[in-house]
């Protein structure tokens, strides 16, 4: 059974710092991996989608990498800003219609 | 831009009431999903649908049913609401890759409905 883990559960950093969020999954046979952002009390906003054949995707200050063989993905946020404060979730798809979500990393960027 | 809308942001119902949560997407996506999100438990899939009138149980379907009469609309029904169904409910949609493929692509979420059952 696929399991997705995100460490750390919470992170506080000063503004301007570059940071890395981690996502691990137990079954490497995935179709794709998606990173989301969730603000308190809101829905999920898609940030990046990496197909299983890809190694990374970039959008602005965000870069996501995927290493299927080791069951890991990282989300790199450059020059963090207070507006980046949110919970970040990763989700993988493998063999079914559904996504398996991690429990998220709660990020706080201090001004 | 893909838009997924949900009928209510906040809803308060009483135990035993029948509750309808509506979700509409405007991008002609084949797949639609209903999740609930609870602190410490993350997102859990209740039901999903890969086509009109088609539905599949997710991980926690008990106490829920769904309806998909039109491609753009996916409804979640709580037949008799209970206090343990107090939660944030999230709807999502995604396209299929076509040609009858069972694979799928990027998921897009609605804003969520915070349901409280008293």
Written description of the protein model:
- The complex is a heterodimer of chains A (111) and B (118).
- Chain A is mainly beta and 111 residues long.
- Chain A has no helices and eleven strands.
- Chain A has strands at residues 4-7, 10-14, 19-25, 32-38, 44-51, 56-59, 62-67, 72-77, 86-93, 99-101, 105-110.
- In chain A, strands 2, 4, 5, 9, 10 and 11 form a six-stranded mixed β-sheet that branches.
- The model of chain A has no long low-confidence stretch (mean pLDDT 93).
- The termini of chain B are far apart.
- The model of chain B is unreliable at 99-103 (pLDDT under 50).
- The interface between A and B is medium-sized, with 21 and 27 residues.
Concise overview:
The complex is a heterodimer of chains A (111) and B (118). With 111 residues, chain A is mostly beta strands. Helices cover 0% and strands 58% of the residues of chain A.
Main features:
heterodimer, A: 111 residues, mainly beta, five-stranded antiparallel sheet, 11 strands, B: mainly beta, seven-stranded mixed sheet, four-stranded antiparallel sheet, 0% helix, 54% strand
Helix/strand structural class of chain A: mainly beta
Q: Tell me the Rg of chain A in angstroms.
A: 13 Å
Helical residue percent band of chain B: under 10%
Low-confidence stretches of chain B: 99-103
**How many helices of chain A in DSSP terms?**
0
Measure the end-to-end span of chain B: 37 Å
**What is the percent of helical residues of chain A?**
under 10%
Measured by DSSP, the beta-strand proportion of chain B falls in over 45%
Counted beta strands of chain B: 11
Mean pLDDT of chain B: 90
Question: Which class best fits the helix and strand makeup of chain B?
Answer: mainly beta
Q: Please give the most extensive interface between any two protein chains, plus how many residues each contributes.
A: A-B, 21 and 27 residues
Give me the strand/helix succession of chain A.
EEEEEEEEEEE
**Sheet with the most strands of chain A?**
6 strands, mixed
Tally of separate helices of chain B: 0
What would the average pLDDT of chain A be, to the nearest integer?
93
Report, as a whole number of angstroms, the end-to-end distance of chain A. 41 Å
Beta percentage of chain A is: over 45%
Shape of chain A: globular
Instruction: Kindly state the number of beta strands of chain A.
Output: 11
């Amino acid at each position: 059974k696929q399991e997705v883990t995100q460490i750390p559960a919470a992170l506080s950093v000063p503004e301007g710092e570059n940071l890395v969020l981690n996502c691990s999954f137990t079954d490497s046979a995935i179709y794709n991996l998606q990173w989301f952002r969730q603000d308190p009390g809101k829905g999920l906003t898609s940030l990046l989608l990496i197909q299983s054949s890809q190694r990374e995707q970039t959008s602005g200050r965000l870069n996501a990498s995927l290493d299927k063989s080791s069951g890991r993905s990282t989300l790199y946020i450059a020059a963090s800003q207070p507006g980046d404060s949110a919970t970040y979730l990763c989700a993988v798809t493998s063999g079914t219609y559904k996504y398996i979500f991690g429990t998220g990393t709660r990020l706080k960027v201090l001004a | 831009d893909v838009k997924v809308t949900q009928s209510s942001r906040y809803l308060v119902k009483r135990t035993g009431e029948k509750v309808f949560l509506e979700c509409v997407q405007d991008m002609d996506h084949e797949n639609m999903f209903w999740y609930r999100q609870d602190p410490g438990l993350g997102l859990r899939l209740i039901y999903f649908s890969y086509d009109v009138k088609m539905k599949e149980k997710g991980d926690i379907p008990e106490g829920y049913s769904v309806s998909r009469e039109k491609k753009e609309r996916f409804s979640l029904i709580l037949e008799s609401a209970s206090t343990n169904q107090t939660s944030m409910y999230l709807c999502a949609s995604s396209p299929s890759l076509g040609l009858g493929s069972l694979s799928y692509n990027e998921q897009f979420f609605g804003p969520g409905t915070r349901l409280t059952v008293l």
